[in-house]
Design brief:
Blueprint (H helix, E strand, L loop, with lengths): L6 E2 L2 E2 H6 L2 H5 L4 H8 L4 H12 L2 E4 L14 E5 L4 E5 L39
Parallel strand pairs: 3-4
Antiparallel strand pairs: 1-2, 4-5
Length: 126
């Protein structure tokens, strides 16, 4: 790890934590800016309130944008079957919580079965 201090679009983490949500939105891409400018939903506001009181919060809000207040906290994000624990780091700013909790498993195929191809239909069973 390098000795350089983390910056997000030219701002240090301390500067980002001093900003309000609308000022931080100006640093995001168009989609993130639009989401914050339209206003956070009730559940998203509750996540931010709970994080001020606790270090760990469970949520189903996969489309919540990671904001500077969340850095250093643990959020358990639901992936459809279970809650996946996500430790929020500086590099995650501006991304969505759902990006860190995958919903699909890797497909592992086995060998093809009998009758899978034309040639396997003529294999004697003896």
């Amino acid at each position: 790890m390098s000795d350089e201090e983390f910056t997000f679009r030219g701002n240090t983490l301390d500067e980002l934590k001093q900003m309000n949500l609308n000022q931080f939105a100006e640093l995001l891409d168009a989609r993130g800016r639009r989401k914050i400018n339209r206003g956070l939903r009730k559940n998203e506001k509750k996540i931010l309130q709970d994080l001020e009181e606790k270090d760990t919060v469970k949520t189903h809000e996969r489309d919540m944008i990671v904001v500077p207040k969340m850095v250093g906290k643990t959020i358990e994000v639901y992936d459809g079957q279970e809650f996946v624990s996500v430790e929020i780091e500086e590099e995650m700013l501006g991304h969505y919580l759902g990006e860190f909790s995958k919903t699909r498993k890797r497909v592992e195929h086995s060998a093809p079965g009998l009758g899978a191809t034309r040639s396997s239909q003529h294999v004697p069973l003896k």
